[in-house]
Amino acid sequence: MANSASAQPSPAPAGADGETRRDFLLYSTVAFGAVGTAMMVWPLIDSMNPAADTLALSTTEFNLSGVQEGQGVVIIWRGKPVFVRYRTQKEIDDARAVALADLIDPAKDEDRVQKDQDKYLILVGVCTHLGCIPLGSKAMETRGEYGGWFCPCHGSHYDTSGRIRKGPAPANLEVPPYTFISDTTVRIG
User: Fold this and answer.
1) Rounded distance between C-alpha atoms, residue 60 and residue 80, angstroms
2) Mean pLDDT of 165-170
3) What is this structure's pTM?
4) Is 157 annotated in the active site?
5) Catalytic hit among 154, 183, 184, 185
6) How far apart are CA 104 and CA 70, in angstroms?
7) What is the mean predicted confidence (pLDDT) over 9-20?
8) By the 8 A CB rule, do 169 and 128 touch?
9) Tens digit of pLDDT for each residue in 116-133?
């Protein structure tokens, strides 16, 4: 009988720390499942991020050194035209001499520009009436009765501060968020 008891195989001995092959397989399966789940979920999470073209349009930097006094240029930000005008001292004085009571949408010129860079006026170039693009940024374009911008579609006239002075537009041209990152470079957005 002693011989028959030694002929039976003995159970596999547990590891030194008490782990068995079954524990190893369980841990491996759980780890493999967690990695597989993460690899499946990551594309879903990543698809919620803004597209690269959207991020590229969220801000625009523009060098002002090429803009001469009295000149206006148009740049594109978020698919919209932005008017950048280097105003003459006369344009600034004319804008500041207007009584707020004479304005359809009262706003001080000082509040529409940055204090240390008030010679540069930066506006979203979309008419607040029906979304047309006013004229007045190029040298030969009509600037309207107040020397700013003129929307020929419906006859809105804006002054040298982008404020509505005459016509059906209900509000001034919008001032986008912008900062000067140097004396000659502005970041819009």
Assistant:
1) 11
2) 90
3) 0.68
4) no
5) 154
6) 25
7) 60
8) yes
9) 788 899 999 898 888 888
